[in-house]
Amino acid sequence: MTDIPLLSLAIWLPIAGGLLVLASGDGRNTAFSKLIALVTALFGFLVTIPLYTGFDPSSASMQFVELMPWVRDYNINYHLGVDGISMPFVILNSFITVLVVMAGWTVIEYKPSQYFAAFLIMSGLLNGIFSALDGILFYVFFEASLIPLYLVIGVWGGKNRVYAAFKFFLYTLLGSLLMLVALLYLFHKSGSFAILDWHREPLAMTAQSLIFWAFFASFAVKVPMWPVHTWLPDAHVEAPTGGSAVLAAIGLKLGAYGFLRFSLPIVPDAAQHFAPVVIGLSLIAVIYIGLVALAQTDMKKLVAYSSISHMGFVTLGFFIFNPLGIEGALVQMISHGFVSAAMFLCIGVLYDRMHTRNIADYGGVVNTMPKFAALFLLFAMANAGLPATSGFVGEFMVALGAIQFNFWTGFAAATTLVLGAAYTLWMYKRVVFGDVANSHVAELDDINSREMLILGVLAVCTLAMGIWPQPVTEIMHATVNQLLDHVAAGKL
Amino acid sequence: MNFPLPDFFPASAEIFVLVMACVVLLADLFKSERQGWLPYLLTLATLAGALAIQVGTAGADTTLTFSGMFVDDRLSDVLKSCLYITVFAVVVYSRDYLIARGLERGEYYLLVLFATLGMQVMISANHFLTLYLGLELLSLAIYALVALDRESARSTEAAMKYFVLGALASGLLLYGMSMIYGATGTLEISAIARKLSDPATNMEVLRFGLVFLVAGLAFKIGVVPFHMWIPDVYHGAPTAITLLIGSAPKLAGFAMAIRLLVDGLPMLAVEWQQMLMMLAILSIALGNVVAIAQTNVKRMLAYSTISHMGFMLLGLVSGVIELRASGDIQLSYAFGSAMFYTIAYVLMSAAAFGVLLLLTRAGVEAETLDDLKGLNRRSPWFAAVLMMVMFSMAGIPFFIGFFAKLAVLQAVVAAGYLYTAVFAVMLSLIGAFFYLRVVKLMYFDEPLDTAPLVASGEMRALLSVNALAIAVIGLMPQSLLTLCATALGQAMK
């Protein structure tokens, strides 16, 4: 334990850097702005590393806690802390931010300082979401993080960006406003906004049900679960590469994280009572959305649907209430953070060169971009859940957990291994293999060293987690077990 | 007969403003050609001086003077200080606009000062007649200001409409006051409150009067169904005048609601809270929905005002008034939340119209939504200012508007109106759409007009400070919340 407020640094350093980048403007000297952005992102990542090295995996309580009164009239505190569930995401988020800044280095020409500032500020706000232990503090970060992404999609997005940006913002706001009322109700009941106090607050079943659905409205939209997933393909397709990568790697995890931090522990009885509904919706996401992905002709849309399908696996893992399921789901979330970010960055590499995302416009890319094809193959395999990649670990754990819970649930869930392989590898085959499809493909240059570095780092992470997941799973054990005991005990 | 000289000290800021208004009138008359800036600077000096006097004479205790017609308490100190700062900003923002249209004459400053005086009197009123006097002083000054541009048919029409409807509302208010006078035999607000607990008081007449009182009040702050004048006046008045109407009078309107209803008729709280609840719900619904259909920014902001005032009323509705054994009245946090909301709204509204004024120049009005297109390319900083205001109005953190909404919603939930809270947030979602549309126009679209922005240095500086206040108070709302809570806690002795 150190006395340095690491979590505050992880939140405010990128935000301060982002404001600095904004202030540096878009004059002639954009190289300077970019340099500040990269340095800030790197430092933002470095300050999160002690969170891992200084973490005590045997304890299920909150660590690196910071507590200061914020708004005394309403008993709102600036209360930060991480446990085994939230800590990996703070690191993952800071890590992805570095890659996203590098990915946009030469690609963004319109107002680059605003672009980089938006990502840095977003990174700080997302860290805030994962480390907030006060309901209002959580909500404030949760809502505020919509602003940068709204601007990123709307300013640097594709043709239909305005529609996508509005849909993204309003959909998410709809859910979170209902959550706000639930938070206020909990404050009214308990006299506190501390999330950990709410975990202990006894609640009757009716109140629990209402709160459960209010939280569900917010988190299900964010995950997104079928049938409120329709904003995601639009947002992904229209967002610039960096926006898609952050949205997939971190944005989608917020909803899932919310289930673990709020729904399960605060309203455990309602969560158990309504679990069949959530499991049903998750299985629909896994199977139906997997089939939808198979039919896509746009690469980004395909990966977007594959994300929804993978996230269905995560919510399934949470609501079967066994350690394998929850830990598997958490591993799946982290793995998906690497793999989906990598997939979107790969598509970005192709898009920067060809300015099209249509699968039909490609073919035979391997002939002109062999290095890229090799890395892309690795990520495609990870997305399909091939053993020895990170994608396998989580899916296998959740599938095992689901079979323990109920054979047919496990059986239905396991179809994702087939469907995932089908849509990913078929897409890969059409884009990369075969003869050179047209003159544009023939003129492609292979990835440069910057792109090589970004994808290479992600490839190492994907493989490392697939081969040796122990360092990630061991920090979760204590927290997950405590959570499950708490849920099993109930509040009634 | 003994006639003691009243204590003028509590009213020193009002007296100062009145004297200075006369000085501005004279200075305007005798100034030379080259001294065109004189009324402007004198007005700013008056407002700064009034603020200094107000802060300097602020005390913890409540003082009544002029035979109990005028009250100086912490509530009036806080609201008046906000008032001076707001009017100061209004005058600075308006100058370039008025000069470009040949409207920058001594009358403007004179009328603004009289309007300020009217609002000061309203805020400090402890008597129905004082309140009415202040209200009319404010209203007459504003009717004249709306018609300041004599050549414009639209402004004249707006002024006419405002005048006729305003007179009607004043009539309603007076009628209500006379009923209450009939029932209680007094016009002094604190005496009325004492009379209410007297079993001999005729409650039927009181309730009858209350209905008219609420109607008059609802007209003045512009809530449904007494809102018809708001869009037309906001639209018809010159933008600089819309800025004035849309900001400072909301503070006076809030004070009027507190003085009339909370101070004057606490025993009838159940009755007036039911009425205000209806008004609040209708305003939030109509304001947010109709704003979507507007193409004119001023009209859009007018409907947004209606919804914001509805939200503010929700705070008043949720307030619990508790009579202590000692005769003191204890107020819940809810009233403080309504006050916080009002101050937050005034800050946001001033900045929003300020940016609109910034976009205008000689011969070019920035009124339609299309005029905002591509602002980010023309001026990234002022685009960011308007973006902050829009997100703040939509209630997105980290801006002041979020805490304003949170404080009110918290009060609503604490009062047990859970479904009202759900309704209010769902309509905020609809409202978020048109605020987002403004951001979309500024950031996602190409500009139609690429001329650089022309504005004086002091306007740019003050507008920036205004925007930073929205962000900084949004990050640290504690001190303003405390100020509002203590101001209202103490006012009720």
How would you characterize the overall build of this protein?
The complex is a heterodimer of chains A (492) and B (493). Chain A has 24 helices and two strands. Chain A folds into two domains: 1-188 and 227-243, no CATH class; 274-492, no CATH class. In chain A, a hairpin with a 4-residue loop joins strand 1 and strand 2 (76-82). Chain A has 492 residues and is mainly α. Chain B has one domain (9-491). Chain B is built from 20 helices and four strands. In chain B, helix 3 (74-100) packs antiparallel against helix 4 and helix 8 packs antiparallel against helix 11. Classes of the chains: A mainly alpha (492), B mainly alpha (493).
Largest sheet of chain A: 2 strands, antiparallel
By DSSP (H or I, 4+ residues per run), the number of helices of chain A equals: 24
Order of helices and strands of chain A: HHHEEHHHHHHHHHHHHHHHHHHHHH
Helix amount of chain A, in percent? over 70%
Strand order of the largest sheet of chain A: 1-2
| Estimated share of beta-strand residues of chain A | under 5%
Question: How are the SSEs placed, and which strands pair?
Answer:
The complex is a heterodimer of chains A (492) and B (493).
Chain A: H1 6-24, H2 30-46, H3 49-53, E1 63-71, E2 76-82, H4 87-103, H5 112-131, H6 135-144, H7 146-156, H8 161-190, H9 195-200, H10 205-222, H11 231-238, H12 241-266, H13 268-273, H14 275-294, H15 299-319, H16 323-354, H17 365-368, H18 370-384, H19 390-405, H20 407-432, H21 439-442, H22 449-467, H23 470-474, H24 477-489
Antiparallel strand pairs in A: 1-2
Chain B: H1 12-30, H2 38-57, E1 63-65, E2 70-72, H3 74-100, H4 106-123, H5 128-146, H6 153-184, H7 189-196, H8 203-221, H9 229-236, H10 239-246, H11 248-264, H12 269-292, H13 297-318, E3 321-323, E4 329-331, H14 333-359, H15 375-378, H16 380-394, H17 400-414, H18 418-444, H19 457-475, H20 478-491
Helix pairs in contact in B: 1-2, 1-4, 2-3, 3-4, 3-10, 3-11, 3-14, 3-20, 4-5, 4-11, 5-6, 6-8, 6-9, 7-11, 8-11, 8-12, 9-10, 9-13, 10-14, 11-14, 12-13, 12-18, 13-14, 13-17, 14-16, 14-17, 14-19, 14-20, 16-18, 16-19, 17-18, 17-19
